[in-house]
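User: quick one, sequence for these tokens?
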């Protein structure tokens, strides 16, 4: 009994202890810390107006009870003056701990300054999905950012306490998202504006339906709320972890084991993998990725599927743009912002203490259509090269220029650059292969620029004969004799830079036992890590 009492006091002391970065708003619902203003009998309209909210055992002391067991499920509307601004100039962080009865019905807000089921208007909101997972929406009135994880990995209606945190970093123009002490996603948010709204910020529901004795119960969260904290700054992953472990000790160390081999996959998944079915197509996509056992995955045409794929693997997720994303078995520590995130973006990956890797995901423009230029317009090799200047050549030049700091440091931290270049390689379009390239030999400028920058084409490094091993990634859908899909070519690549990376296997992946779910084949390279770094 004495040990149990001691443990309770330790928990209370820990949960209420401060991390280095102090919140500007805290609400923990202890009875001596939180009270609703009483309603006078003369002012009450309904019997429920005279009720007081209920509290149950929380993480440390008491938690607000909004569950189905509570008589009055009234959310909390703090005074606006006590909260930091959520405007475009201010970084901020929100934490809330939640718990439900096992299997509780979900689908209502948890906390935020938006109405329920209204993601299109300005504001922010943490909410519960009907499938039992949580979700986050941020909207500045022009740009909208949705994070909708899956129930198998991030379920909140399982009867356990869960910590939900997001931090808006205005200096880096990104949002870091956490579940139970771990960073599960990073969203690149270039140009994001204010997340203020006309609605008040409400804890445990939304700012609506307070009247007629409802007390905002219509959209109240079906569970328990505790340890609400808001900062007027971003906080670090270490601080989030400390906030979690002080309330729930025993979280295993987030230090990955140093891998000797690294499997890297790059794949244009064709409209989020939905082309052959909103759910079936994505299922086949996930099955294909799982079969590769890849460690780091660059997705092109992500389009809302990234968090689902990441959750299915239990991996970390970085959304560069609606188009580009990176999924990794290993945690992210730093991001590299591109002027055009639809074209490129990078992230530093921690493989082990003292062992880092930089990965840049890339997409180059699909125009000009060089297949049409060759098949229909019969343009010469020199004309084809000249055509590249307006789009892809300009894009690759700008991308490589922005990458100069990491390129120059590749002897310390190796660099991978992969993606859909939408163009062939000068290593493939040589005299020996002219017969399969409409009798053309083309010095494509994009691949030449990559080699000039110091990168090596991992597939062609291991498959030195482009006639015997063409490595076509465009397109698995094409019938052998069809020209409808244009020139069959290798247009997806994994380039590497740095002595620590040594490719030992590279292959094209274009098979699923039922139906391959994309118009691009994937390319995967296995690297052996050499040296101390």
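Assistant:
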């Amino acid at each position: 009994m004495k040990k149990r009492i001691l443990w309770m006091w330790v928990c209370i002391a820990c949960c209420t202890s401060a991390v280095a970065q102090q919140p500007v708003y805290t609400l923990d619902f202890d009875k001596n810390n939180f009270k609703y203003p009483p309603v006078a009998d003369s002012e009450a309209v309904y019997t429920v107006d005279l009720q007081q909210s209920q509290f149950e055992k929380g993480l440390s002391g008491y938690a607000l009870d909004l569950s189905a067991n509570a008589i009055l499920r009234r959310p909390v509307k703090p005074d606006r003056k006590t909260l930091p601004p959520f405007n475009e100039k201010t970084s901020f962080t929100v934490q809330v701990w939640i718990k439900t009865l096992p299997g509780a019905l979900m689908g209502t807000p948890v906390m935020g300054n938006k109405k329920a089921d209204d993601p299109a208007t300005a504001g922010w909101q943490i909410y519960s999905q009907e499938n039992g997972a949580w979700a986050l929406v941020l909207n500045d009135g022009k740009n909208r950012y949705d994070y909708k994880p899956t129930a198998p990995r991030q379920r909140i209606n399982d009867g356990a306490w869960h910590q939900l945190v997001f931090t808006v970093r205005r200096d880096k123009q990104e949002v870091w998202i956490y579940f139970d002490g771990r960073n599960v996603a990073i969203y690149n948010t270039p140009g994001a504006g204010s997340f203020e709204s006309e609605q008040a910020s409400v804890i445990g529901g939304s700012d609506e339906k307070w009247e007629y004795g409802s007390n905002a119960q219509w959209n109240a969260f079906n569970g328990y709320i505790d340890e609400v904290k808001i900062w007027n700054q971003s906080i670090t992953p270490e601080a989030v972890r400390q906030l979690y472990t002080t309330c729930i000790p025993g979280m295993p160390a987030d230090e990955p084991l140093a891998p000797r081999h690294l499997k890297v996959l790059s794949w244009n998944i064709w409209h989020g993998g939905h082309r052959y079915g909103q759910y079936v197509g994505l299922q086949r996509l996930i099955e294909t990725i799982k079969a590769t056992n890849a460690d780091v995955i660059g997705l092109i045409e992500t389009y809302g599927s990234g968090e689902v794929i990441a959750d299915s693997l239990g991996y970390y997720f970085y959304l560069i743009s609606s188009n580009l994303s990176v999924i990794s078995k290993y945690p992210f520590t730093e991001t590299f912002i591109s002027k055009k995130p639809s074209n490129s973006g990078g992230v530093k990956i921690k493989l082990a203490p003292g062992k880092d890797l930089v990965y840049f995901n890339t997409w180059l423009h699909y125009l000009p259509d060089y297949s049409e230029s060759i098949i229909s317009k019969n343009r010469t090799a020199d004309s084809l090269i000249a055509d590249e200047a307006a789009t892809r050549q300009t894009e690759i030049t700008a991308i490589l220029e922005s990458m100069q700091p990491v390129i120059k440091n590749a002897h310390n931290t190796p660099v991978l650059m992969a993606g859909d270049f939408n163009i062939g390689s000068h290593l493939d379009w040589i005299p020996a292969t002219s017969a399969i390239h409409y009798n053309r030999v083309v010095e494509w400028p994009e691949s030449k620029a990559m080699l000039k920058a110091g990168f090596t084409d991992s597939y062609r490094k291991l498959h030195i004969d482009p006639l015997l091993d063409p490595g076509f990634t465009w397109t698995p859908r094409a019938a052998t004799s069809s020209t409808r899909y244009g020139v069959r070519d290798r247009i997806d690549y994994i380039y590497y830079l740095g002595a620590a990376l040594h490719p030992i296997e590279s292959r094209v992946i274009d098979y699923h036992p039922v139906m391959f779910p994309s118009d691009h084949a994937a390319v995967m390279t296995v690297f052996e890590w050499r040296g101390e770094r």
